[in-house]
Amino acid sequence: MTEVLGVSVGASAVRMARPDLRLHTSGERELDFRHDTVDTQRDRAEELAAETIGVVLAQNYGDRGVEATGVAYRDQQQFGDIQQAMSVQRLHNYRLVPEARAALAYLEASGEIGDFGTIALYDLGSSGLTISVVDRATGDVLLAERTTDISGSDFDRLICDNQLAKQGVDLQNSVGVEEFTTRCRIAKEQLSTSGAVCLPGESGVILISRESFEALVTVPIEYSARLVRDVITRSPQRVDALFLVGGGARIPLVEAILRSWTGLPVVTPAEPESVAAKGAALLATPVRDAPAPTAPPVLRNGPATSSGAQALSGAPEWLSPEPVDRSVTSKRKIRGAALVAGGLAAVAALGLTLGYGGSEDSTSAPADSEQPLTTAPPSTSRTSTTTLPPSTTVEAPAPAPAPVETYEAPAYERPAPAPAPPPPPPPLIPGLPDFQLPQIQLPPPPVFELPRF
């Protein structure tokens, strides 16, 4: 008996599903799944998923062996990350399928899709929200949009901040913060079916009701409803129903708000967090003698991804960017190279002109050389030739001793006295002809002596 394995890679957990076909009492086959969940904690989700798949494939359950593995991926970035992680584990018998197509496959097999034609998927997980419009007839994703402004991790932090503020506790230890946040996530999950939750722990007691939790998350959920309405408005086909998948779909307030904002039938499948893993298991097909990749895969009709791991040609077209005309690009590169080469040639010619364009006076032979240096007259390209005596060896002159620099204080010179000012010009009487008046020298005044008593 052979089995298939379906895997979905989330930010907080890696989920695995195995189909279990059993006969119903009426004689019809009933589709059921066996589930396994591995929390990522501090590990990278893609690496943990590859290690877990390797362990599962290495196990032997008698005659039950896993013949095929399907792995659901979220976007192009995760597509390359999963490929790298699987290559490190030397695993090649697997298929990568988009999460939207995996969800559609499960909804078809379970019959929950009903008679709807074009559906919208609201996938709220720990790392973000993905909204996709899928054509049921072709399986193509007509429109997709993802945001990290709302996520399950944001809901956990809202609960954590609320509880810490109520208790007046400031957790400084990172271990205590991680433990407290984990219990907040558990409280969020329990509030989907309970009216209130009380979780004691070393870092404090978490006590919160569903009403308090809904008051914290109403604004971000309404924000996501606006995004859903915008995507549905821009869809090239009319959307018939909205399906909620992912762990966030278990929150009752999500379904209520989306139904009132969109006006569409809203369906939440059973165990919405495992829909992608179940669909990946249904789409898994064996890969025989798949060669190990020796180089990073190349994205079809698009540039390399930022992480260095690109998608293979099996990636869906709706995730690939617009095609690029390679001929135009190569022509631009050739023209650019020609312009750069011309610029370098001009710079080189200018450098030659500046380096050798000095005057004859600035170039002279050293005084201690054995033979004079003869330079050619100035021209476009100047060369210098040195005439050596007819001898097989030329002895270099002994180096001259380095000059010794001395410093002498400048002698102070007393400035010369300023010359005497010239005598003033003789006075002139306005209105009369110019003539020189005789200079009259008055006698000194007489000296009077007072009588002494």
Automatic annotation (TrEMBL):
Pfam families: HSP70. Residues 416-430, 441-453 have a biased composition (Pro residues). Residues 372-415 have a biased composition (Low complexity). Keywords: ATP-binding, Chaperone, Nucleotide-binding. InterPro entries: ATPase_NBD, Hsp_70_fam. Gene3D superfamilies: 3.30.420.40, Actin, Chain A, domain 4. SUPFAM superfamilies: Actin-like ATPase domain (SSF53067). Residues 289-324, 359-453 are annotated as: Disordered. This is Hsp70 family protein. It comes from Rhodococcus sovatensis.
